[in-house]
Amino acid sequence: MAAPVLSAVRTAELIGPTSGDRPAYQVVADSLRLLIADGRIAVGTRLPSERDLTSALALSRTTVSSAYAVLRERGYLTSRRGSGSVASLPAGAMRRDTGLHMSAQVPEGMIDLTCAAQRAPAGMTQAAEAAIAASPGYLSGSGYLLNGVPELREAIAARYTARGLPTTADEVIVTTGAVVGTAIAARALLSPGDTVVMETPTYPNIFPTLTQLRSRIAAVPVEPTGWDVATMVSTIRASGARAAILLPDFHNPTGNLMSDEQRAVVAKALARERITAIVDETVVEIALDHEGPMPLPFATHHPDTISVGSASKSHWGGLRIGWIRASGSMLERLTAARVPFDIGAPVIDQLVLLQLMQVTPGITAERRRDLVAGRDALAGALRERLPQLRFVLPSGGLSLWLELPDPVAAEVTLAAEDEGVLIASGPRFAAAGGLDRWIRLPYVLTPDELVEAATRLARAVDRVAAGGTVSRRGRSEHRHGPLVA
Fold it and tell me: In the structure, how many helices (H) and strands (E) does the chain have?
């Protein structure tokens, strides 16, 4: 796998102004160190040559050479024969929790902001009763419907068609959630040691599958404001990857939405390198106040795409129903990859989802209003209590992606638990290490609960900033961290 290349112009834009009281070489070195540690320059990326960056920054060659020397000394830059200067992390800094951890029970009084999913929607009881009434036709069989309940597959196909991607029921496979769907796709495409292009940050629950496959990751940074498509194309071109795992629809955790123009550029780069896209559309229905029509599904731009969806965010996570949408011979490969560990989703749960989708294919207007109220309440409380934290207010999705002033996400996470709020720190979402200055806060609870959570988080941040210690009380069930959903 060749190292992706970051242009001198883009590097200079990321570094920003170099004037000030400190020596310019130190400003450049510190800026690049933070960019690499934050994942905004992915590990393995080739930085521009000293000569090219000198020109882009309008600094002396000695200044840039000194900055690069500092980065090499501190472990953030590695010189490779034929690859120039490549971004790296110091030994021991490649931290990523690849486990799916779940606490047995959230203690009373604790606010849990590790799970970006809502409560069950109104009408769940009626949908369950209707599902039971519809179930006798399935009771005479084994209950193992490898591809799913036909009527549900038709409803899912109709939703894709309505979004602009003509789809038949034969192109849909129902799974036990999006995590399983993505794992099936990865196993169908990847052999041990293959490279996969991934965004960083990204939804972390695919990491165990990639670890088992010993996959090599070519990371593509996602900024708080969106994708750097030029760098993404460069990474795709250099990766030698077999697959790319992407979240273009209200990206988790940043909430970014990739435009049709960007999708077309990325799709062209993938097609040129014959890379299959695995696109996680779990959050596609969670448009809050997005203006204008939604972009077309990624597969309309790149037919060689495996689309993965789920009812966990649009309806209810307790149903554990997801799906895969693919075409042609890929369907046979997916079915073969599925059988060893997932031979069919629960029939009753599928029938419940079918009843819900017949009323509302996506989230209801009421749930959308609840999410907007929660998002705005949390954002307002953070601006008031923690003005030093930075974030971009998303037009969809389920969480805020917060930037801390310092790389203390782990310390803040522990201090927050002591203050009575569970949060997920940035390194959990890092595909290639770093992200120590970031935390994710879902806004799926009530406005009052979210304001209280912000108040507790503010106390935790203040404690860490003041150098306060973090206690270990009550960690018997939470010491490994909760499930990130």
Answer: 17, 15
